Amino acid sequence: MPPQGVATHAGDASRSRRRPRKPGSPSVLVRRASMLLPPIWRAQLSAHGNSHRRVSRELLGDVLIANDHPVSSELCEVIDELLAAEAVEPVELLGAHARQAQWGHAGATRVGVWRGDITTLRVDAIVNAANDAGLGCFQPEHRCIDNVIHRAAGPRLRESCRKAMQERRSRLSAGTAPIVTPGHALPARHVLHVTGPQVRSGSEPTAEQSAQLAAAYRNCLGAAKARGIRSIAFPCLSTGLFGFPQQLAAELALRTVRDWLCLDANAGAMDAVVFNVFTPKDAELYTTMAPHVFSASQAEPLPALPAKVGDLAVAPALRRAAEFLAEADAVIVSAGAGLSVAAGTNVYGSKRDFEAAYPDMVRRWGIRTAYECMGLFYRDDIPNEAKWGYQARHMNNMGFSFPPSGGYGLVKDILAATVGEEYFVHTSNVDDCFPRSGFNPERLYTPQGSWTFYQCMRPCRSDSVFPSWRMLDEVVPQVDPESGELPPGAVPRCPNCGGLTFGNVRGGSWFLHKEYEEQQDRMVAWVDELVASDKKVVVLEIGAGFNTPTVTRFPMESIVRELGERGVLIRINPAEAEVPGDINAISIPRGWDALRPISEGIEEIRVSAEPARADWALQAHAQQQHLGRHHSSDMWRVFKARYGHFDWRIFLRQLRAEDDDDEEERMNL
User: Fold this and answer.
1) Whether pTM exceeds 0.70
2) How many domains does the chain divide into?
């Protein structure tokens, strides 16, 4: 027998060197919490592996975000411990970290602008941009501030919101008084949940909507004063999915807060007000305007916005983008949801558009956007006939009926004027807008699937994927126009096994990628050829944010990095336009409408026969100097250190079904 403590084989050696885990370690807490979850959530957790970091995120996403039922006190206690173990040092803007903010004054009140994570601020209260239900966002992957705050505060926050909304007895609506809850696991003692106005995509705010946004700020200040709250931090209300123009929203926010603080009745009511900004554009707007607003008296008009903010600042980037595209030998088009946003059909972002398309979903089930329908098939209170009554109409609208936005035509015009057929499209969109707009389907990869197919949800076989048009032609006419339901027996079933079906779009471990593997193979081979060649390549990325960065943004950054001086990334995104500082890149903080001046610029270059510029590295460097404020640090290195790679080939390979069980390469962002 070997001496005590000496291993007899490699497995024992590994165990003998492993430290025993403390009872309160994150992995232990996650396992304890997972045992307290309903069975459906435990199954979801088990599908994502055993790493405590991945599972803790999945746990918090499932419990805090997707779960609309009350959470047990025992589970709350475990998650309290987990959040405490993961907590970071709070930001003390009113103390040790004051220099991180830009400060001004309104009377005796300090007014600051600070860019960072609002959930780390130690203030009396932070403001949450809530939806009208007041219970938080129920989409785990949605990056709205409502989601971020609930995730950081823990499930007790939703229970406090539930109680406050029951006492209120009415939904939150634009510009009405907020509900006030404790902050729970947040450094802030309170959270004020308020709803701002939602502006129809492509429209200007009405006078009523502007008044509602101003009222949201005033009502929060009034509620804070009534409760003795002395310091408060505001996010940029209504400027995300609610579509309020950022510049006008900033003007209204700054002016409204200044006017309220300068009223005699409010003198001395607040010690500090912080405007928390997140995007580069908001940071520039607030830091530029705030010194003017808070140096002026209440009676003076709001100073004009300096010319360096807005379209004048974007114009050089648009021109430079046109120059790179005009000189390119090949273009990779990478598109996210932002390219498909169009007035009248924006059912994901516009409550008005959603209600016009699916009035029964609003009337019967209280669902107000297509984002809220993402968890529809997990709701036990809605019959399958109603679920598929909506699903069939939605698949038909998104995959066949809703016309593509004007952005698709602009992309097509740009390609025709520059590289012809030497392009490839890589898109997370599942609405089939590229082939419907005349793009070559042989030069298209849709890794997230397509509404033009449906599949078995088990799935019973790897090839249980079927074209949806014939099924939809049969099913959609059967939907009752009043109830939105299908008649009994009309719910689509798998032709192979008779099981339940769903659109062939990535929404869980059941997703079948088989239909798209040839697309991926063609794209990988084409990009490999570009890397091995001496061709100049532009990656034109439009509307791809951080909902699925490993599908769109990260692979594109990796490709440009591998191309070196021959590659340039043009990133067009109104809210998330930051680019890495170590690659040739142009950041354009606009929507797909930025494609129009780029297309016009290409035509001007073509007509003038302007000579090509061979030194791409120097051009890109000059562009980064000009728009340096839009360029983030090398964030990609953080992800590489965390997940072991930042390689576009691995990102794409992970999207294939056969890699779902490969723990070494699986990622969960």
Assistant:
1) no
2) 4
